[in-house]
Amino acid sequence: METTPRPAPPAAAELTFRDATEADADALVALIESAYRGDASRAGWTTEADILQGQRTDPEGVLDVIKSPDSRLLTVERDGELVACCQLECRGEAAYFGMFAVRPRMQGAGLGKVIIAEAERTVREVWGAREMHMTVISVRDDLIAWYERRGYRRTGRMTPFPYGDERFGVPQRDDLEFELLVKALDEAGGAATR
Length: 194
Description:
By secondary structure, this protein is α+β, with helices and mostly antiparallel strands. The chain has four helices and nine strands. Strand 3 (71-78) and strand 4 form a beta hairpin. Residues 1-8 and 190-194 have low confidence and may be disordered.
């Protein structure tokens, strides 16, 4: 059986992490769209093209995150190229992780693991967060399994998908909802042990 070679996992030293600015909005929208929607997203494994069409986000949504005093939109660059991003939002003792996108051609090589670890470190150090929360479309079993391997647990707490609001996409099925995933963060830099 022939396998496609994957690039070596990126070293954190090769990556530059910084907060997004308003000037980054269009490039961030393009990155997020490419990771989840349309044929280009099929080059990676995080595509939602079979369950949602239309947009994943828009410039206004990205700018709202950038401008919010309780949020950061962490951008990740390699050699000056935007390769990934994620939203971090302070919610008291918890932080919210969202808007996570990795350039499709770079998915599956370990970049996501590096970014989520940096996001967890950031919310612990900057906000003192004790937990990281995220919501994932409940039918995305492969994506949920990836997060579970990173220490996140399913809670069974569901939120309805915003059917009829095309800012979040055009659903291709009628059973979409979001499930809350949670990870306890310890003070030393990993998952809390219980």
